[in-house]
Amino acid sequence: MNAINQSGWKPEMVGEGRHDVKTYTGNKALMLEEPLIFEIGNNSTTGVDLAVSPKVISRLGNLERHRDIALPGLSEPEAVRHYTRLSRQNYAIDLGFFPLGSCTMKHNPRLNEKVARMAGFADVHPMQPIETVQGALAVINELAVWLIELTGMHGVAMTPKAGAHGELCGILCIKAALEARGDKRSVILVPESAHGTNPATAAFAGFSVENIPATSEGRVDLAALKSRLGPDVAGVMITNPNTCGLFERDMKAISDAVHAAGGYVYCDGANFNAIVGRVRPGDLGIDAMHINLHKTFSTPHGGGGPGSGPVVLSEALSPFGPLPFTERHADGHFSLVEEETAGERHPHSFGRMTAFHGQMGMFTRALSYIMSHGADGLRQVAEDAVLNANYILRSLEDVLDAPFAHSGPCMHEALFSDDGMAEGFSTLDIAKGLIDEGYHPMTVYFPLVVHGAMLVEPTETESKATLDQFIGALRSVAERAKAGDPLLKSAPHHAPRRRLDETQAARKPILVWREPEQAVAAE
Amino acid sequence: MRYLPLTQTDRQAMLGFIGAKSIDDLFVDVPAEAQLDGPIHGLPNHASEMAVERHFSNLARQNMSASHHPFFLGCGAYKHHVPASVDHIIQRGEFLTAYTPYQPEIAQGTLQMLFEFQTQVARLFGCDVANASMYDGSTACWEAIGMAGRITKRTKAVLSSGLHPHYVSVAKTMAKYTGDTLDTAFPELSAETDSARLLAAIDGETSCVVVQYPDILGRIEDLSAIAAKAHEHSALLIAVVTEPVALGAIKAPGEMGADIVVGEGQSIGVGLQFGGPYVGLFACKEKFVRQMPGRLCGETVDAEGKRGFVLTLSTREQHIRREKATSNICTNSGLCALAFSVHMTLLGEKGLRGLASLNHALAVRAADRLTQIPGVELINDSFFNEFTLRLPKEARPVVRALADRKILGGVSLGRLYPGVNALENGLVVAVTEVATAEDIEAFAAALQEILA
Q: Which of B301, B316, B343 is the last residue of a domain?
């Protein structure tokens, strides 16, 4: 029964779609334009009510701020609407499939948000007396134990703030271990397919970086690696599973060779989601590996952080890990090893990487995720992630070039190239076409070892129906790219913005908002 | 498993399509000896939402939370009231579950917010430009020292004794590996800062001077003379702000000649969270922008000429420059930057100034009250919302005794500077808008009793 027709009114259906209709506001129904806060707020509006300050004689050292800061305020309703409107111009996992390779965009359980906001964790100061934060230290310690068990390693440094910070932690452990034995090795070997952070980290720590070639199968060339090892090589940084989505079969042999030559093995753990619960990196001879809690353990990416990158360490490297860390005593009491007690408890530490104890808010979320899954669920996570990726690989290898499809099953991500597109069409066009189809594109142009790389990581939190629809959409877009559809070249057509001019942005950077007259003056 | 949508039927159908007999066929590249035969032994299996929540509730109860007790801790992390709408906004899935805005056409929400954030930070610090945030204040401080080294091509940094000791530790750790030399000292329990030491140390080899404002003991000083001396020797002044609310009351470091201003943004919007995640603030003069670390958001136009925003100047960054990047940093602290920006927008000029004025007034009152206690002495001539007391005995056990009385009464310098006997009677007390008159009175009464 239709309530509208009951009233006797019949809608008139217009036959043709009219996409070019201009509106007075520039809005298109639910697609709402939103100005900057500097254009809608002002210095005298505020969205907070404050108590009146008691009158006191100022003790600000005669440094009172007189000039306007020029911070516009909004009342609460205006502010909520501003940010809500902005939020709707973002794609997100909550909205749809987000197969960004190497980034592990899985569902973020809301239980984790709830526990992280408990006052006992969210509203605790990092310098409170140890006796008043036993529950917080217990969370850090419990998560540490899980990470050690899941990776089969000896210890873990919890403080690194993100994956790249974790890499730095691991590399500094290697550096400290070498220094402790008076060894001046200066070279770190990194495969061509590595994340950019790997060479950047090694270079920061004062190492020179040399590339290791890959085989035609997309794996580290073991023979080439072995021939480069020697007394100047401090270690290797290897991503496993690698960025081509393949497991490094020779990982144990690589580790053994590096160890035999006196070096250490760093593993980039960005892709741990593929093997969690099925393989322990410690069994492969790894000395250090960072774990992106925001990937494998579902802490939200938040539009680009905050991340968290604890580093698991082998017995050889554990003595050099950073301060501070938690210690559990036989009576169940926790203490912190900081600079004060380090001399006695942890004398070889390379030092402190950050103020305070690391990303506590991410620890609570990750531990909640881990406990929810348990040992059995985590193993299922890896299996479903790998199954989903292989399903995508095999469903699309007839329409997209899959350079390593012959190398066997992929792990948690499927890699394609832009080989076979029409003249002038590339990966970028496919990505933008997927935006119109309602997806976030896959990772593009990474890894660098494949031309026009497209790295698709579905994760385990997607249903078969979602995968089937995505496969259909990507097939359709790939076929348009092969046929040279000009409308694909100008995609996206339906997003809040068309393609943006990045060249102009970089040539004449505008990084802050200025009043129009100031902006002219600055020209 | 409530988070896994595949059914057993789906799995069988998909394996069949792939041509695999079982899931093990997809792990053939893992050598048999490295394969686990089932769920890791000795670890618990999956748990219900209720069971997990209960576990966390039990642990949370073992902590003394700042909102439930008189609370006076600072030293780089401050308790402020965060409006309810801030947490609502950052929990919107479109912000919470988005990635780094690499596809700008469908990430304008995050990008516009970052552009607004950058502008707010630049204005607050009195600088031309700011980046899209760093991990936290301590790592931002080190990155600024590294940046000054790149600009001046010198390696000697002079650090004020008033710089947070954890920030000094982080810089020392990093400097060991980069070959920078750091000139450091412990603070003294006096109203005088060590600006004379800094002025004397600046020479033609100095890359930068690093001064915290207000400093670790809460003291505020004019940075102009240090800036002038640094510039005379072509060195840079880096100012470090761990309590940005202060800048609602006192001059911005940029106004006094600072070249780079970094800070910890935690106190606006983010909350205490036992030390993280926080948000590093990073601003500088426009001429140094190409040497900045971290992400930058810039304005541009789309193919139809509409204003839009993108990540820009990425040729500084690791994913393009690899081993030649300005930093290995890959993420920023996006969601915390959002929290900072929403809170700052709710405050606005008027709210920030009102909040700063309230903080200062309450701190003055608390300082006056606490120094009525026999033997308790205020060392500061100047302060914003944090000051240092000299107690007649070692402060650390006093802080523990206060905690036994359910009062979180400041940070002892013994905790921050273990083994430095000259500082062990120092207690750093922060007083923000959350402290009531009753809280201050309860603190004073307990302190008097403990010292008696």
A: B343
